[in-house]
Design brief:
binds guanosine-5'-diphosphate-beta-L-fucopyranose, single chain, alpha/beta, 14% strand
């Protein structure tokens, strides 16, 4: 697996207790690996706690006594999942984030990092998307409930910082991919879906792979190990901005992504588009001037990252499909 682990962090024990909310997901599990590799002490519950439950969340955080919290727990999914389960996307996320943020404040957590998403920015905002475009226009309808929940989390973190003097940081990652992603064809994001579809088409000798929409939308993709590297880089700084974009720096059309995955997989069939399925937002490239000016840049080229995740999927495909 490609990574740039030792670039910024030593693995000396730090004596800092860290709770990763959502440690089982793609982002949470990558954060756990990274934090442990860098010498942090992970404190996680022995049994799964429903973070939508206020009392349970407060008891958990009081009990774990973390110094830092990474809020990676969320109801997430691709364009179809967002469109199909809008109530769950807003309810689950509002509950999880409110409980974790408030409990962290009450338990005097020293630092909290909250993960947002590039879909918080207005659908037709100028590109690349700068942090100050937040709340400057209408959202993309396919993910409005999710985006509104994430915007509420940012405003909540800012309000706590202002009123209570907390140190809550919000990062806005671009579209992510990596090991432990969700490969379910209905609810996944595009990279996981196309890796699975292409691999299955290759194995079964299918004539074509179906790609949703027109193939023209542009998306920016960042490997989750780069994202966790940026998160830790920001958390370890004494002084930092409270809202920071984390991106790869360039984007690619869905069509070219499908062709790239086809090439990586060695699949010889066709790519066919299904314009009945939604395209979503036409483009959402993040402006990463702020993060790069602080001294961080990604280290995993797209082709290299996709190749590693394709291999990971092939090795783990059996249990992924169960
Ligand atoms: O990754 P994705 O589901 O999310 O879709 P969004 C990106 C683009 O890939 C869309 C196209 O234009 C899809 O139509 N696409 C093509 C596919 N084939 C497929 C496929 O088989 N599966 C999927 N899922 N897409 C989500 C938001 O937006 O991105 C969330 O809904 C969040 O709120 C997340 O922000 C990062 O980039 O469109």
């Amino acid at each position: 697996m490609p990574n740039g682990w030792s670039r910024y962090h030593s693995n000396e024990p730090k004596g800092i207790r860290v709770y990763v909310a959502g440690a089982r997901g793609m982002v949470g599990s990558a954060l756990g690996r990274r934090l442990q590799g860098a010498g942090y002490t992970l404190v996680q519950p022995a049994v799964r706690v429903d973070l939508r439950d206020q009392k349970a969340t407060h008891e958990l955080i009081e009990d774990l006594k973390p110094d830092w919290v990474f809020l990676a727990a969320a109801k997430v999914g691709g364009i179809y999942a967002n469109k199909t389960y809008p109530a769950e996307f807003i309810y689950d996320n509002l509950m999880i984030q409110s409980n974790v943020i408030h409990a962290s404040h009450q338990s005097r957590v020293k630092k909290l990092l909250l993960l947002g998403s590039s879909c918080i920015y207005p659908k037709f905002a100028p590109q690349p998307l700068r942090e100050e475009y937040l709340l400057s226009g209408e959202l993309e309808p396919t993910n409005e409930p999710y985006a509104v929940a994430k915007i509420a989390a940012i405003v909540m973190a800012r309000s706590y910082n202002r009123q209570y003097g907390t140190d809550f940081l919000c990062v806005m990652p671009t579209n992510l991919y990596g090991p432990n992603d969700n490969f379910d064809l209905q609810t996944s994001h595009v990279v996981a879906a196309l890796i699975r579809k292409t691999h299955e088409a290759k194995v079964s000798g299918a004539e074509f792979v179906e790609v949703w929409g027109t193939g023209t939308p542009l998306r920016e993709f960042l490997h989750v190990d780069d994202m966790t590297d940026a998160c830790l880089f920001l958390m370890e700084r004494e002084e930092t901005a409270k809202l920071v974009n984390i991106g790869y720096g360039s984007d690619i059309s869905v069509r070219d992504l499908a062709l790239l995955i086809k090439d990586i997989a060695g699949y010889e069939g066709e790519i066919r588009f299904n314009p009945e399925m939604p395209d979503g937002t036409p483009r959402k490239l993040l402006d990463t001037t702020l993060l790069t000016s602080l001294g961080w840049k990604p280290s995993i080229p797209l082709r290299e990252g996709l190749t590693a995740v394709y291999r990971w999927y092939v090795e783990n495909a059996d249990w992924q499909r169960r």
